[in-house]
């Protein structure tokens, strides 16, 4: 959700119970403005919070002019002092995929993971147990990246592609219509398209190149990984990710208000097929 | 006819320039003849221009008309190759100027011929191409267009002479229509070479142009105008008035045109009122807000009770907001009103906002209520179903007296559910999907449902009658599952500060009382309050005030004495306590014991290094006014707060228990072993001849006296053998 309209957005997203206490709100409003100034961001998003056992991570993201350019992610424990997170890499993802359970809330906490590695000494092959230390900060980076890639979404038309190739915020976006708001195909993943290139010519025929430049939600795997609800009597559409429980996207049809927030444990719901 | 000859010449020149295909032209020209040749000779020559188009698509000319007008308008902006009609006016070619002279009289002929057609309003002309119908107008268009193909560039100059010939406004309008058509057709001819060149490729440009035109023709939902008409009217106005520097005042012209436009308000037969769901919901919720006024003053006693029953939702919502959880302010208030509605319509002694369970399609708002004494509503429902099944089985046993063995398997004995007001059924739960909708009472929970619910993990859909499809078959639909989850969550996460409740003295009358722990409590009038910092620092200051649910699925132990063989087999719960007792003797099952009431939560078991509770202070900045916030890690979404004196519990979430490992479906039940091969299964070999002979010898030896008998026996044996 946009840091500038934080209060309205929080109100809109409150149906899932994911709010912020008044002092946190006030702190964020202040500190995110400063973050925007200091880091020269074009736009600052309040991304959400990851619930730790001891403390919570508050996450913010800074966007540059080009909305799909790599984003910078910051975290904070007290909402006032923000630290920049390193960019996520594939290596980190594989490294942290072995860690399970909840976040601790301490960035310097180290998870220990014992791995069995094969060591060649001459001709003999030993199996040796190696203890791998994984910092929680690394895991945080990787989880945020995974969530972003999987479930960060924007409504169709909110962003548009300029002839120069950059992706900008669409000022003429007036919200989805009611009928569109109920369809998954009106929502796009907020990331570089992956599936788009695999589409057939027939599927591409109806697309508007300035708007349809991202993957839509409707082909997400597994099918049914989104819950879409109209709340307040159609005045608000809320999408909840079932794959990453805790991610809530809200959009008030016919207005520019949209955004997403993640409040959760930072764990993927691998039980989804059993639960549907 | 002089005109026509000169025109022909001109035409020929043009054709050469445009590099049309001569042969095709001839063919198509002949096909065009009946239509256009009658009107005037040049048509014969003109046909070819339209030729390729008509061949590719039979109603070609209307279509081309459809495509080209857009070009007129979008041309300058979209930078399409053909020169738009506006251009010539600024820089007329000498050729065109030369032509102007002889075009003028001829043009007058043409326009007059068209006037007969021109009764139709402008919009008709514009829409007509898409209709592809009306051969008459079609023809005129075509003829107009054809004539104007020759003099496309001069078109604008023709206004002069025409203005002279037509003075009255009506004719002006008509003329405009005509000129519009001319525009389109002439432009189409300009396009022609291009489309001819790209004949092989699919006509992408044309499709794009048609799409663009369709878009421009889309009427505005507010004013009913469309941009296409508007632009053409504007251009007409500019061309009529010939202002200086038109580009500078184009906005004003646009405004003038809009203001000049008036539309009659059309009567529709019936006003169809939109019935958006928004309005429906608002209508329903209106009842919530009205209720306070509707209540008469004669119900003062009633009011007293309901006031007592109604919880102060807003106050606890305020504290939960400090903690950073809860719904929005307005939704909370709506729920508050909905709870008021509930307490007004039911004999409720105590009511509490339990929380909200998220669903796939709709959510559940859950209220926890306690009915007034003796006013519990109908409770005798489907609880007899399993017993009936048992009875039926035993009756069948008695009825059949064959020797054939019947199934020895008996279903494990159904454990009866607890009485209302005790155990897991201590409270009654009402749910609704949205504040304002009707409250639905959830059925009482049965132990079997709790036991199965512990083994499955399903999303709620939001519809209470959804069947639950799961591997251990769940006895009931979603309402039962919801009720079971509510019972589990309440038992796990409802906590209060130490000392707030204490065991009452007169509680011995509870018939279900067992020696291990008492199951009822009351508020401690002498509760002094606890320091918030103490509540944050020590978990032992919080106690459970809801009874623990045993692995059996009940809060109070039910001894299934008769046949309790191994019903505890299925009780490897991940729940907080691990009961390792097994009733080995068939007649006696050892009692399951859980933590008694008012046990501190510091004794809760942790799951794989995850502490079950997290506490914190709501604000680090102003600790003196902060409240203690408790968060359950076992049931994500369960919260409790206390400011020392007050406390409240709240749940919002999907209604699932947390586990660090992914869900594993329960293992299938063991396959029943077959009978061990023993003496009653195996048989001996048939008696051999030697054995029989030996047997006979032995018999003879023992029974000498009766030989007749033996003989008969022999006979019989022999007979047997023969058989």
TrEMBL record, chain B:
GO terms for biological process: axoneme assembly; cilium movement involved in cell motility. The keyword NAD does not apply. InterPro entries: Radial_spoke. GO terms for cellular component: radial spoke. Residues 373-387, 565-590, 682-692, 707-723 have a biased composition (Acidic residues). Keywords: Cell projection, Cilium, Cytoplasm, Cytoskeleton. It holds the Pfam family Radial_spoke. It is found in: Cytoplasm, Cytoskeleton, Cilium axoneme. Residues 106-115, 136-154 have a biased composition (Polar residues). Residues 1-154, 372-408, 506-525, 563-595, 667-723 are annotated as: Disordered. It comes from the Eukaryota. Residues 124-135 have a biased composition (Basic and acidic residues). This is Radial spoke head protein 4 homolog A. It comes from Vicugna pacos (Alpaca).
